[in-house]
């Protein structure tokens, strides 16, 4: 995914921060157990959010200390494997694989070479994940095909393109048989997915404008999306409000506080950083620091 789905850490209680770190590290360990070392390198906080909201109703938090590649001496407090973590691990591999394949298609032979190499390395894990989550992979492929058709048509519709991407995330919630909870969770993930798509489109404005790549914002507002910033942010706030309303009908157990922090504080913080250009500056600094 994209790395936008993060909490406002300064507003988390100590216990909530422990729960958040525990689910992130637990997802990393689950990926390692089910798929080996390489997929763990592609983990980001978006998938930790998915693992939290897929928690079973009434689930309790239990942490145990395990060795960690990033912290080999002291280890990390880790949430042990459970159904929600297993599902999130499987779906994160599928989503990451198709995100890489999409980057290959978008950037061509040379600029897309890193994504091509990563997708080839991830392919054995992807094949294994498809056997475990065939319905999710099928729905993801179908939605991406629809999205590619809209891109070929150079569709200026924000709703159609964002809806197609949002349905991928909505399908990440497996049915539990509890109609109200399942519907609410699907709606929450749908609107978070819609928000992610539109925020990412804004974040990519300069790059897509310079390269001529498809971006629905550039086609929807030919006089420049910057002049319509408030209109775009209004639809983002609408999606967040609907996601929060749906979240109130779900139960993420010990991660309820973290999930609400992300929706009410973290995503608005990220949105502000994207629209001011601060988010792109941070990403550039992070890349430079890694060199």
What would you say about this model in short?
This protein is mostly helical and 291 residues long.
Cα distance, first to last residue? 23 Å
Q: In what range is the share of β-strand residues?
A: under 5%
Question: Briefly, what CATH class?
Answer: Mainly Alpha
Please bin the fraction of helical residues: 55-70%
Q: What general outline do the C-alpha atoms trace?
A: globular
Pfam families: DUF5685
InterPro entries: DUF5685
Task: Tell me what the structure shows.
- The chain has 291 residues and is mainly alpha-helical.
- The chain has a single domain, classed as Farnesyl Diphosphate Synthase, CATH 1.10.600.
- It is 69% helix and 2% strand.
- The protein contains 12 helices and 2 strands.
- A two-stranded antiparallel ribbon has the order 1-2.
- The protein is globular.
- It starts with 13 loop residues before the first helix and ends with a helix.
- The mean pLDDT is 91.
Explain the layout of strands and helices.
Elements lengths: L13 H22 L9 H9 L10 E3 L9 E3 L4 H29 L1 H20 L1 H19 L5 H13 L8 H25 L1 H7 L4 H5 L8 H19 L8 H21 L1 H13 L1
Antiparallel strand pairs: 1-2
Spell out the key features of this protein.
291 residues, mainly alpha, Farnesyl Diphosphate Synthase, two-stranded antiparallel ribbon, 12 helices, 2 strands
């Amino acid at each position: 995914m994209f790395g936008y789905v993060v909490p406002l850490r300064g507003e988390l209680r100590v216990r909530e921060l422990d729960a958040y770190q525990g689910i992130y590290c637990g997802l990393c360990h689950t990926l390692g157990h089910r798929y080996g070392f390489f997929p763990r390198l592609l983990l980001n906080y978006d998938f930790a959010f998915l693992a939290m909201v897929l928690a079973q109703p009434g689930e309790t938090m239990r942490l145990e200390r395990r060795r960690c590649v990033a912290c080999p001496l002291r280890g990390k407090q880790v949430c042990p494997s459970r159904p929600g973590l297993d599902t999130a691990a499987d779906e994160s591999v599928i989503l990451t694989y198709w995100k890489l394949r999409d980057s290959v298609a978008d950037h061509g032979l040379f600029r897309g070479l890193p994504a091509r190499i990563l997708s080839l390395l991830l392919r054995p894990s992807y094949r294994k994940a498809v056997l475990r989550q065939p319905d999710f992979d099928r729905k993801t492929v179908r939605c991406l095909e629809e999205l590619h058709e809209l891109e070929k048509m150079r569709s200026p519709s924000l709703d159609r393109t964002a809806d197609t991407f949002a349905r991928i995330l909505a399908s990440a919630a497996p049915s539990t048989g509890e109609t109200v909870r399942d519907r609410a969770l699907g709606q929450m993930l749908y609107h978070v997915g819609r928000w992610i798509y539109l925020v990412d489109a804004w974040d990519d404005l300069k790059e897509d404008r310079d390269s001529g790549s498809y971006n629905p914002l550039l086609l929807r507002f030919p006089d420049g999306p910057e002049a319509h910033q408030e209109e775009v942010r209004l639809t983002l706030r609408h999606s967040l409000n609907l996601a929060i309303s749906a979240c109130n009908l779900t139960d993420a157990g010990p991660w309820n506080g973290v999930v609400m922090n992300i929706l009410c504080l973290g995503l608005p913080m990220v949105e502000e950083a994207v629209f001011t250009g601060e988010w792109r500056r941070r990403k550039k600094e992070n890349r430079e620091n890694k060199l």
